[in-house]
Specification:
single chain, Jelly Rolls, 9-stranded mixed sheet, 8-stranded antiparallel sheet, 17 strands
Length: about 260
């Protein structure tokens, strides 16, 4: 199973309309790549007054929706694993739910991924307690599998990370300790282009077509009710959108459509 590692250091809390910078971690393993999960590499954030949003943000590695103000102790969503269209070169796309990581130095997350190794698509599921490493599950994952995932804060530094592939008939509940006091400052449902190359660049985003999240909740309520509801738009270095995110339906469902790899 291909492992790709991503670790991006924390960003300062966002200020509306202020550009941000991030520093990539430097200890790359063999192959020069990091894990599928990690912190948001945010470029800017601004107030929004459309579609019931509080904010809109741009990121070079995340797209989706997040609650970004208040205290968050649980996040959930379901999705169908999209197929990767692989033509040439290596590309990566992760789909996950998580707490923290938007404006904090920790993140607790679990999800699935499709990586292109040349013309071959590889699928797997994983969890991560950043700044610890990502851990892959060994179970079979295929395009079209239905996933449900939940991250729950327990107490102290402890979390429960649940992910189920109901198509393949397997699930995992992983109780993990962060090793530091969590922020609990955000809850996210995200499509991610993992980071990083040895030079700190974001990896090319796998062509995943269109995929949809449903049942997206934060603190047990539709994520559309979350404080500081933020739509995150993934952009490349030229400011072009790398995928499109639909408006929330019923406050808890949305789709993402791939546009370009980088």
């Amino acid at each position: 199973m291909l492992r790709r590692w991503c670790m991006v250091l924390a960003l300062a809390a966002l200020t509306a309309g202020t550009a941000l910078t991030a520093t990539s971690a430097s200890a790359a393993p063999s192959g020069g790549y990091f894990s599928p999960g990690g912190l948001a590499h945010l470029v800017s954030s601004s107030a929004a007054h459309t579609r019931g949003l509080s904010f809109e943000a741009e990121s070079t590695n995340w797209s989706g929706y997040a609650g970004t103000t208040g205290r968050y102790t649980s996040v959930s969503a379901s999705w169908t694993q999209p197929a990767g269209t692989c033509s040439s070169g290596d590309q990566y796309a992760a789909f996950w739910v998580g707490l923290d990581g938007y404006s904090s130095s920790t993140v607790e997350q679990t999800g699935s991924e499709v990586d292109c190794v040349g013309r071959t698509a590889e699928y797997y599921a994983w969890y991560e307690m950043y700044p610890g490493p990502s851990e892959n599950y060994s179970n079979t994952v295929r395009a079209g599998d239905h996933f449900t995932a939940t991250v729950t804060y327990l107490s102290g530094e402890k979390f429960s990370l649940y992910i189920a592939d109901t198509t393949q008939g397997w699930s995992h509940t992983t109780d993990a300790t962060l090793g530091q006091t969590p922020s609990l400052s955000s809850a996210e449902v995200i499509v991610e282009a993992p980071c990083c190359t040895n030079s700190g660049g974001i990896l090319p985003l796998t062509d995943f077509g269109t995929m949809s999240f449903s049942g997206s909740t934060a603190n047990g309520s539709a994520i559309g009710n979350a404080g500081g509801l933020t739509e995150i738009i993934m952009i490349d270095n030229s400011g072009r959108d790398k995928d499109t995110i639909s408006a929330l339906s019923g406050g808890e469902a949305f789709s993402a459509t791939w546009l370009r790899s980088n």
